[in-house]
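ZP: hey, is the L-homoserine complex queued? I don't see it on the tracker
AM: it wasn't, my bad. submitting now with these inputs:
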Amino acid sequence: MNKQLNIGLFGLGVVGSGLWDILQEQAHQPFSIRKIGVQNPEKQRTPPAHFLTLQPESILEDPGIDVIVEAITHPEEALALVTQALRNGKDVITANKKMLARYLPQLLKIAAENERTLLYESAACGGIPVVRTLDEYFSAEPLDKLYGIFNGTSNYLLTQMFRYQLPFAEALKQAQEKGFAEADPSDDVDGADAKHKLILLSAHGQGLWVHPDEVLHLGIRHIQPEDIAWAQQQGATIKLVPTGKRLPDNRVALYVIPHLVQRDNPLFHIHDEFNSVHIEGQYSGRHVLTGRGAGSKPTASAIIADLQGLQRRQQYRYSKKRLLSRPALDESLEIPVYIRLPKSAETSVNLESIKVDSVEIDGQNIRLEGHVRLSDLKSLRGALHAAGAFVMQR
Ligand code: HSE
């Protein structure tokens, strides 16, 4: 008989309310939400008022609560809650990818010092069981590559723009209404959210943890109908793709950039909020995990899986960290790129580091195809972003 777990929940947004709803439907589950920490007392909510509290301590210090489920937005506020929970002897399940990507080593240390467990399947790719898969199943096999679609909002936007010619702002509004987007969707459209998930998956799959500031991300904020038309002329589509690629000498290239994706690439067929994680093992070859990467119940289902994991005393092993000798970030990889920027911005971006194959002037835009090293692209990122350029890997 499984032990009943009493939950203190922080956050009643998309993920927290999904957890509440599933546990109402699945009353047989041995999980019971005891208290819910919220910030806004005025908001209309489904759970009865006696579950709600504005006082985090009344949850963190409640000896009747075994596990904290953290599902708030702000990474530093989440860090404070999670740290205190671990110190108070509670296990923690968190959906907060931004907090984890920034503070993973620190959090693991605190969890170990307090002999507590920290699980976060819901933090990467919603309902897809990828953290556990990488951590357990692929704990010994070196991975040549880890890539795919890790952000539901941007994939939803691209799908709507390509299929229905929906304007960017309209597609984003829909993604927000459906509960896919972050409270501030900048991280979704600029590629940072996909990067946070890449960092987490790379820690488990490639043994590398890197601070998010070190990793290049470029997003889809500046995509224009002319970029979409250009891709369609090639019979291709565009997807936002995070990549962790193994290079010689145990070095790893990590980066997030939109990709031109041809029809014969399985990512071409991943639509809407679906995510797809491609794992290329040195010996076993390619594996693909596809599923709902965002949304209330898919994400909450991963929290339930973690609750069950806690009952089985599941712990992440981070075996790659121990098995591989010091994997290091490498930015020397050169990638083929397409850059489209307004003619007016030509002088504000120094494109000298790009090996140019072709340049076209098209109306008010310059379209350039060439090759660039990741380190150079990272240096150019700020200027390209400010200039409204759209960059993708060809
Ligand atoms: N905003 C995220 C996404 C939610 O769109 O993928 C799931 O992490």
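AM: back. The mean pLDDT is 96.
ZP: great, adding it to the tracker
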